[in-house]
Design goal:
alpha+beta; 10 strands; about 15% strand; three-stranded antiparallel sheet; single chain; globular; about 400 residues; about 50% helix
């Protein structure tokens, strides 16, 4: 039995005891994430009690000290604990009178262990209820893109509703979840390593003029610092809203989606989540067909969600603010394409294990797959066509 399983069994026993459930048998099986999860080991858990069977899902922290420091994992786990223990109850209270079809659905939460090095979250196992992941290597189709955009619009609407119902409480949460990115925190070696990574990616581009323009954006405009801050309208943003962080269930023509990861929730800009989702989960062909349609669908879905929560869209996030934020945020997609997309599209055998003792360079210099190169070129083609660069 692995150390992670021992940690899980010990914490599970306390969770069941607190719920008044007496276990007869516990079956735990590790889940292979195929490179889609970096900070934790994943487990399916079947618990037979004296009155029912519980089908659960668990994540147990599995991060080496150096990775934990470089990637600020302590903050990730603390954020996840806050979301499940405090934010979700607030949000569910705000949407308690909505029809089920209009709610933002959270997985049922069983418990969070915050002990350092043993951070564990236990949830319902949605896979046992028929939900399935979408391949991180496959470009989204319209149906999955549409339902994901509706979901993040509802998530953002709850943030606006919380600010309306409890301005002081929202402000306190927003301050606590403020992104603390410090542009002066990196030493010269780290900066040089990021430049090396950028140059490696830029080398796959044929147009030298594009490379020069991208270099100017990356290294002369403080993109990383600027776009980690809210723009016109702050919300509690998801922060890692990609298609592999959702599970899907189809019944007839109806498709449902549930978001399953909340480690990166922060005070940010609504369009940050939207652009992150689109460009990390689609190829150039999809965007030619559906980019504008998906952007419009997000704002329409946001308007509808806000009205159902008795919030006036014009007062909190008028269309002109949305369009302005969208235009101002587009250049940051390049940083996302350099820093996040390589890991999303990494071949399983090349994925960096965060539970191994590695140096900083291992985390900011990912290997580029052939699919990544194709997608990166597609993003740059879009940006040239749209006059972003």
């Amino acid at each position: 039995m692995t150390e992670a399983e021992l940690i899980l069994r010990d914490f599970l026993e306390s969770v069941l005891k607190e719920r008044g459930s007496k276990q007869k048998e516990v079956r735990i099986k590790e889940i292979n994430s195929d490179g889609a999860n970096y900070t934790s080991l994943l487990f399916s858990v079947n618990v037979e009690t004296f009155d029912k069977e519980l089908k659960l899902f668990a994540k147990v922290a599995d991060v080496a000290d150096e990775a934990r420091r470089v990637l600020n994992c302590d903050n990730l786990f603390c954020t996840e604990k806050f979301v499940y223990n405090q934010l979700i109850p607030l949000y569910n209270s705000l949407q308690k009178d909505l029809d089920e079809e209009h709610k933002f659905i959270f997985p049922e939460f069983y418990g969070f262990n915050n002990e350092f090095g043993k951070e564990t979250v236990i949830l319902e196992n949605l896979v046992e209820s028929g939900y399935k992941p979408y391949s991180r290597f496959k470009s989204m189709d319209w149906d999955h893109g549409r339902i994901c955009v509706e979901a993040i619009a509802r998530f953002h609407a709850l943030s606006f509703a919380l600010r309306k119902s409890d301005p002081e409480g929202f402000q306190k949460i927003a301050q606590n979840l403020k992104n603390t990115f410090d542009k002066d925190a990196f030493d010269q070696t780290t900066k040089d390593q990021f430049k090396d990574m950028a140059e490696t990616a830029l080398s796959v581009l044929k147009q030298e003029e594009c490379r020069d323009k991208i270099r100017k954006l990356l290294f002369e405009t403080d993109l990383m610092y600027k776009y980690n801050q809210p723009l016109s309208t702050p919300v509690l943003a998801h922060g890692d809203y990609k298609i592999s962080n959702l599970l899907f269930k189809r019944k007839g023509h109806n498709l449902k989606a549930v978001v399953v990861d909340y480690q990166t929730v922060h005070t940010g800009c609504p369009v940050g989540d939207l652009l992150y989702f689109i460009f990390l989960g689609s190829d150039e062909h999809f965007r030619r067909l559906y980019y504008d349609k998906l952007i419009n669908h997000y704002y329409t879905s946001l308007e509808e969600a806000l009205k159902r929560l008795d919030v006036d869209p014009v007062e909190v996030y008028p269309r002109e603010n949305f369009e302005s934020d969208l235009k101002e945020s587009l250049p940051f997609v390049i940083v996302t394409a350099l820093s996040a997309l390589p890991n999303v599209l990494a071949d399983v055998e090349t994925v960096q294990k965060w539970n191994s003792e590695c140096g900083v360079e291992d985390f900011i210099k990912p290997k580029f797959s052939d699919l990544y190169i194709e997608r990166f070129r597609g993003i740059i083609n879009d940006f040239v066509r749209w006059n972003v660069i």
